[in-house]
């Protein structure tokens, strides 16, 4: 059962109890089995096996042969995955409906600046800003690790919907990649970008994002403990009249005008 720890852990994340997850994985190893077989293989007390298997049966994950003793069989893996995915999607649909109901009809202008920790979370916020853009998106890239497949796909989708995309970079590889992957966007460089990239004290910059000249994000990178996953933090705001937003917006607007000159 050592190789099954990951499956058991994920099944628990998807809502199964520990005993349910262990019993299902144990049955997946067998053509069929009795409660005794499952208890021995899953390392679950016999007194808890019957309850776990009955619950799995009600969830459609286990079939029961009403013999003496009862014989149990896990459904096919494809069937189990379909049922679990459908159940997970139902949870998300219910959650979305509930959250939409409690969200206020309007929100006041947000003047706060929010901090984000970790590269994955900064990337998720960046992807959200790209998705929310309706007219224009400006993105400055100072680190190669920023531009991954998910980012390229998101930029392509935004471009396909008519969003005007401008990407600033001084890296030839990024320039060529963007020109091929997202041909509809504008890729530019500038004296400011070159200065920032060449100045040692500024090497911590990772990315700058502006969506529809409102929401802005600025990140910094300090090393790359795992290859392709830099240690990144960021600050962002959607407040159109916040000083941070105004400052970044003015710089990026100047960059765009300069690149077109």
* CATH domain topology of the largest domain: Endonuclease, Chain A
Number of helical elements: 10
Q: Sketch the major β-sheet.
A: 7 strands, mixed
Strand order of the largest sheet: 3-9-8-7-4-5-6
β-strand percent reads 15-25%
CATH class of the largest domain: Alpha Beta
Mean pLDDT: 84
- CATH homologous superfamily descriptor of the largest domain: Endonuclease Chain A
Under the CATH scheme, which architecture of the largest domain would be assigned?
2-Layer Sandwich
Helix content: 40-55%
Summary keywords:
10 helices, 49% helix, Arc Repressor Mutant, subunit A, 2 domains, elongated, alpha+beta, 261 residues, 18% strand, 9 strands, Endonuclease, Chain A
Explain this structure:
This protein has 261 residues and is α+β, with helices and mostly antiparallel strands. It folds into two domains: 98 residues, Winged helix-like DNA-binding domain superfamily/Winged helix DNA-binding domain (Arc Repressor Mutant, subunit A, Orthogonal Bundle), CATH 1.10.10.10; 147 residues, Endonuclease Chain A (Endonuclease, Chain A), CATH 3.30.870.10. It has ten helices and nine strands. It has a seven-stranded mixed sheet, with helices on both faces. A hairpin with a 3-residue loop joins strand 7 and strand 8. Helix 2 packs across helix 3. The N and C termini lie far apart (66 Å). The model has no long low-confidence stretch (mean pLDDT 84).
Secondary-structure map:
Layout: H1 5-13, H2 18-28, H3 35-42, H4 46-58, E1 62-65, E2 71-74, H5 77-102, E3 114-117, H6 119-132, E4 136-141, H7 149-160, E5 164-168, H8 172-181, E6 186-188, H9 191-198, E7 205-211, E8 215-221, E9 232-237, H10 243-260
Helix pairs in contact: 1-2, 2-3, 2-4, 3-4, 6-7
């Amino acid at each position: 059962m050592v190789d099954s720890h990951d499956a058991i852990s994920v099944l628990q994340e998807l809502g199964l109890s520990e005993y349910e997850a262990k019993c299902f994985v144990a049955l997946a190893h067998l053509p069929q089995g009795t409660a005794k077989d499952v208890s021995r293989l899953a390392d679950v007390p016999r007194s808890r096996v019957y309850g776990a298997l009955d619950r799995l049966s009600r969830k459609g994950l286990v079939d029961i042969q009403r013999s003496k003793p009862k014989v149990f069989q896990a459904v096919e893996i494809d069937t189990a995955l379909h049922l679990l995915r459908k159940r997970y999607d139902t949870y998300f649909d219910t959650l979305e409906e509930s959250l939409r109901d409690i969200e206020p009809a309007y929100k006041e202008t947000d003047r706060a600046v929010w901090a984000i920790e970790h590269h994955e979370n900064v990337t998720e916020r960046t992807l959200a800003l790209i998705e929310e853009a309706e007219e224009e998106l400006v993105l400055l890239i100072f680190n190669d690790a920023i531009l991954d497949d998910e980012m390229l796909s998101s930029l392509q989708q935004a471009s396909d919907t008519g969003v005007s995309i401008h990407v600033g970079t001084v890296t030839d590889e990024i320039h060529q990649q963007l020109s091929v992957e997202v041909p509809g966007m504008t890729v530019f460089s500038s004296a400011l970008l070159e200065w920032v990239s060449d100045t040692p004290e500024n090497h911590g910059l990772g990315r700058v994002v502006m969506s529809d000249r409102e929401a802005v994000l600025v990140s910094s990178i300090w090393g790359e403990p795992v290859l392709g996953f830099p240690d990144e933090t960021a600050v962002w705001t959607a407040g159109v009249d916040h000083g941070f937003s105004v400052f970044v917006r003015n710089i990026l607007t100047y960059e765009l005008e300069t690149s077109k000159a």
